[in-house]
Amino acid sequence: MKRIAIINQKGGVGKTTSAVNIGAGLCLLKKRVLLIDLDPQAHLTYSVGIKAHELDKTIYHVFRGDSEATQVIIPRLIDVSLPFSAHSRYSGEFFVLPSSLDLSGADLEFGGIAGREFLLKECLASVDGFDFVFIDCPPSLGLLTLNALTTADEIYIPLQTEFLALQGISKLLETVEIVRKRLNNEIKISGIIGTRFDGRKRLNREVVERIREYFGEQFFKTLIRENISLAEAPSFGKTIYEYKPDCYGSEDYFNLSREILEKQEL
Ligand SMILES: Nc1ncnc2c1ncn2[C@@H]1O[C@H](COP(=O)(O)OP(=O)(O)OP(=O)(O)O)[C@@H](O)[C@H]1O
Ligand SMILES: [Mg+2]
C-alpha cells in the first residue's frame, strides 16, 4: 500500500484536481485506490459527487474517535470509454474517505492533545487492501498537512507552471525535512506535477525548464495542460474521464497515471 500526500501550501495549484484524476486514472488501470479528503473545504468529496454536508460521518468523526475509518469510506463506481485509448472500455471502483467543514477547527480541537501529529496514521491503522492511498491536503502547512506527512511514504507536489511557481517551495521542503528528521524518516518527495501548462506561452515553457533544473528526475514527464473541462468537471461531481473523456485533461491525467505506474514498477 503506497500512501501519497499531495501537498502545496499554495492554493489553487491543482492538488485536488490531481488527487481525483490520478486516483480515478489508477483505478481505471485496475489498481485499488483510496482518496482521502483532508481539506475542510471538502472539495475532493464534492468533486466526485458526494455531498459532504449531507453525510452523518466524515473523517472528522474518525479523528474524534467516534467512528472507524472503514465505516466512513464510500465506494464510487466509474465506467468510461476512452477515445485516445482506442475507445477501450474501463470500469472500476475507487474509494473516498470524505471530509466536511467540521474539520476546519481541527488545529484548535486536536492541537493540544498528545499524539496530535499521528491522528491520521492511527485512523488508517485498520485500513488495508489498497494499492494506492492519496491524501489531498489543504493549502496550509498546519496540523492537517502535518498529519498527512507523518502518514505518507511519498509526497507529490503540484506546481502551476506560471510565474512564482517555485515561490514558497523552500518553506515546503524545509517542513518536509523537519518531518523526516523528527516524525517520519520514511518520507520522500517522489513526484512533482506540472499543472495548467500552456505550451503557447513562453513563460510557461521557461517555468517548466526551471522546475526541471530544480527537481530533475522527480519531475513527471507528463505535463497537465490548461484545460477548461478540468475546471468544469467538479461541479458535475465527475472525474475528467466521465465528464469529457476526449479532452486534453483526460488524456494528460491518464498518461500521468500510466507514468506513475511505470515508475512504481521500476
Ligand atoms: N489543468 C487545469 N486547467 C484548468 N483549470 C484547472 C486545471 N487544474 C485545476 N484547475 C482549476 O483550478 C482551480 C484550482 O484547482 P484545485 O482545486 O485542484 O487546486 P488546489 O490546489 O486543490 O486548491 P486548494 O489549495 O484551494 O485546495 C479549480 O477551479 C480547478 O478546477
Ligand atoms: Mg484542494
Brief sketch in words of this structure:
The chain is α/β, with parallel strands linked by helices and 266 residues long. 39% of the residues lie in helices and 18% in strands. The structure holds adenosine-5'-triphosphate and magnesium ion.
Task: Give the ligands present.
Answer: adenosine-5'-triphosphate, magnesium ion
The biggest beta sheet, please?
A: 7 strands, mixed
Strand content: 15-25%
Number of helix segments?
12
Share of helical residues: 25-40%
Number of self-contained structural domains: 1
Widest sheet, order of strands: 3-4-2-5-1-6-7
Provide the structure class: alpha/beta
Shape: globular
What is the architecture at the second tier of CATH? 3-Layer(aba) Sandwich
Distance between the first and last residues' Cα: 16 Å
Summarize the helix and strand pattern as letters: EHEHHHEEHHEHEHEHHHH
CATH class: Alpha Beta
- Whole-number mean pLDDT: 96
Residue runs with pLDDT of under 50 for 5 or more positions: none
- The total of beta strands comes to 7
Q: CATH H level: which superfamily? A: P-loop containing nucleotide triphosphate hydrolases
Can you describe this structure?
The chain is α/β, with parallel strands linked by helices and 266 residues long. It has helices at residues 15-28, 43-47, 59-64, 69-72, 106-110, 119-123, 143-151, 169-182, 202-215, 228-232, 240-243, 248-265, and strands at residues 2-6, 33-37, 74-82, 88-97, 132-136, 154-160, 188-195. Strands 3-4-2-5-1-6-7 form a seven-stranded mixed beta sheet, with helices on both faces. Strand 3 and strand 4 (88-97) form a beta hairpin. The structure holds adenosine-5'-triphosphate (ATP) and magnesium ion. Adenosine-5'-triphosphate (ATP) binds at residues 11-17, 39, 43, 139, 195-196, 224, 226-227, 230-231, 234, 249.
